[in-house]
Amino acid sequence: MEVGERIRYLRNKLGITQDELAQKVGYKSRSSINKIEMGIRDITQSAIVAFSKALNVTPAYLMGWEDENVESNIEILPNSKVHMIPVFETVSAGFGTYADNCIVDYMPLFIANVSDVPDMMCIRVSGDSMYPKIEDGDTIVVRRQPCVDNGQIAVVLIDGEEGVVKKINAGENFIELISINPMYPPRIFEDEELERISIVGLVRQIIKNV
Questions:
Q1: pLDDT band at 148 (very low <50, low <70, confident <90, very high)
Q2: Which CATH class for the 82-207 domain?
Q3: pLDDT tens track for 39-54
Q4: Residue 168 and residue 155 in contact, taking contact as beta carbons nearer than 8 Å
Q5: Residue 79: which of 22, 141, 24, 142 has the closest Cα?
Q6: Mean pLDDT of all residues in the chain?
Q7: In whole angstroms, how far apart are CA 112 and each of 117, 133, 177?
Q8: Domains of the chain: which residue ranges?
Q9: The pTM is what?
């Protein structure tokens, strides 16, 4: 089965139209989906990732790299629980960058609890301070919340502008922002400096840049 045939099969199994699939993966019209399904239009690697997320399968399955028998074990997730989540340009995972409030894309994500949808966002990460867990170019799925537990990874704003992704260690009078990459020393804010720090949200998922 070719890629286009797999896309058509899975789309029909999910019960979504070509127009709906086009919207989920960022195409302007159903004609592009129709051409891909018919095998007369090539599909890029980034599009394979988008299609696999929208159709709730792995990119490897969509490309035909996994065994054909996998098809019988596919769990089709409810379409009503797949939501288009905004993607923001970047939050640094290195020396820091200014947080960008501009939405640059939307990504289809399976979210079981619909009440969580308004608080979810995706951010493209730059830098290597969280390597190897989070690499340059990865996308993190973040749930907006004002605090996290020690040891969790969060998106943090410093001085309301500099956005970073760090592991959190906090006490009564301090907060420590910790990098996984040992090349980057921890950043410690104490006493009145705590006012410079605000938690944007908890990193719930890491989507690798493939």
A1: very high
A2: mainly beta
A3: 888 777 678 888 888 8
A4: no
A5: 24
A6: 84
A7: 9, 25, 30
A8: 3-76, 82-207
A9: 0.63
